[in-house]
């Protein structure tokens, strides 16, 4: 399973994925009621999959919004990275269905960190997840993570370039939640997108392990996603192909996030009033992309218990 679950010491992924899918129904129901997305099975799926949100925002605005940088010091230590560039993909790339993604800055400074946005297919859904994708790929997600380590001259070049899925994608999911803690989502519609994305990540823990460990058929996997994830069925079918040919890759996202949140809770418990969010984030990010057992040891030493 790639580097997804190696050495985390947390629960195996199949059961937590199912638990999170069930728990996710509660905030989903509250958010959908506020947006008048009742009806369908699961509730609101037909409306979320078939109707765009009422207000479309600039797709790249949330990934690098300059006015919000004023609050960044409450969550991240200096040096703060430069703003994230937001660039439309070339038409030939966009038309192939390439999803929005981030490319880090070059070490020689010849290219800025860039969030590549697909104007033809902005997200997997119909627009509800624009903000959560921008936060995952931009700020406080991959742009902050990867641009920051490029600014740390004391790291070996390989460590500034290396990327482990469980660390990087775990940080991307952690950033989606952090954006809510930072009050960056514009309102109910953005939060619906975040809940939808969260349900997707939880459900694929169940589906990936179901396919590769428990002998599920493709139809079982498809039906589970359709029952638990409010995204278009064509997209969910393509996701199953991804899980089949890349065993374990999709597990790394939520497993990495769970580990980061667990380490944060441990550090808060040990440090009490001395805990600072910027200090924790510096401890997580400033050695580059680390295997989870190595990161856990580092954070425990930082918090005085290792």
What does this structure look like?
With 306 residues, the chain is mainly alpha-helical. It has one domain. Helix content is 52%, strand content 4%. The chain contains 13 helices and three strands. A three-stranded mixed beta sheet has the order 1-3-2, with no helix packed on it. Helix 4 crosses helix 7 and helix 8 runs antiparallel to helix 9. The two termini are 28 Å apart. The relative contact order is 0.17. The N terminus is likely disordered.
Give keywords.
3 strands, 13 helices, globular, 306 residues, three-stranded mixed sheet, disordered N terminus, single chain, mainly alpha
Short description:
By secondary structure, the protein is mostly helical.
How is the secondary structure organized here?
Elements: H1 14-34, H2 45-50, E1 85-88, H3 91-94, E2 101-103, E3 114-117, H4 130-137, H5 142-150, H6 157-161, H7 165-181, H8 188-212, H9 218-228, H10 233-245, H11 251-271, H12 277-285, H13 292-302
Helix pairs in contact: 1-8, 4-7, 7-11, 8-9, 9-10, 11-13
Helix content: 40-55%
- Strand order across the biggest sheet? 1-3-2
Q: Strand-and-helix sequence, N→C? A: HHEHEEHHHHHHHHHH
In DSSP terms (H or I, runs of 4 or more residues), the helix count works out at 13
Instruction: Tell me the total number of β-strands.
Output: 3
Distance between the termini: 28 Å
**Strand residue percentage:** under 5%
Total individual domains: 1
Radius of gyration computed on alpha carbons:
19 Å
* Oligomerization category of the chains in this entry: single chain
- SSE class: mainly alpha
């Amino acid at each position: 399973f790639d580097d997804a679950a190696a050495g985390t010491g947390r629960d195996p992924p199949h059961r937590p994925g199912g638990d999170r899918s069930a728990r996710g129904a509660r905030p989903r129901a509250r958010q959908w009621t506020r947006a008048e997305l009742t009806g369908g099975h699961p509730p609101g799926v037909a409306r979320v999959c078939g109707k765009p949100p009422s207000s479309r925002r600039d797709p790249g605005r949330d990934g690098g919004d300059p006015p919000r940088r004023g609050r960044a010091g409450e969550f991240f230590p200096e040096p703060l990275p430069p703003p994230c560039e937001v660039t439309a993909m070339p038409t030939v790339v966009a038309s192939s269905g390439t999803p929005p993604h981030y490319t880090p800055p070059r070490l020689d400074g010849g290219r800025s960190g860039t969030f590549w946005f697909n104007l033809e297919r902005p997200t997997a859904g119909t627009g509800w997840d624009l903000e959560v994708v921008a936060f995952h790929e931009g700020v406080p997600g991959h742009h902050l993570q990867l641009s920051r380590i490029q600014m740390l001259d004391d790291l070996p070049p390989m460590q500034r370039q290396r990327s482990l899925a469980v660390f990087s994608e775990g940080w991307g999911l952690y950033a989606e939640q952090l954006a809510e803690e930072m009050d960056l989502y514009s309102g109910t519609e953005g939060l619906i997108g975040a809940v939808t994305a969260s349900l997707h990540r939880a459900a694929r823990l169940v589906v990936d392990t179901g396919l590769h460990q428990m002998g599920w058929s493709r139809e079982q996997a498809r039906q589970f996603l359709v029952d638990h994830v409010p995204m278009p069925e064509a997209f969910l079918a393509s996701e199953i192909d991804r899980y089949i040919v890349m065993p374990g890759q999709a597990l790394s996202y939520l497993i990495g996030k769970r580990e980061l949140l667990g380490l944060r809770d441990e550090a808060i418990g040990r440090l009490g009033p001395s805990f600072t969010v910027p200090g924790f984030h510096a401890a997580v990010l400033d050695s580059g992309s680390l295997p989870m057992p190595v990161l856990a040891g580092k954070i425990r030493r930082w918090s005085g218990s290792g």
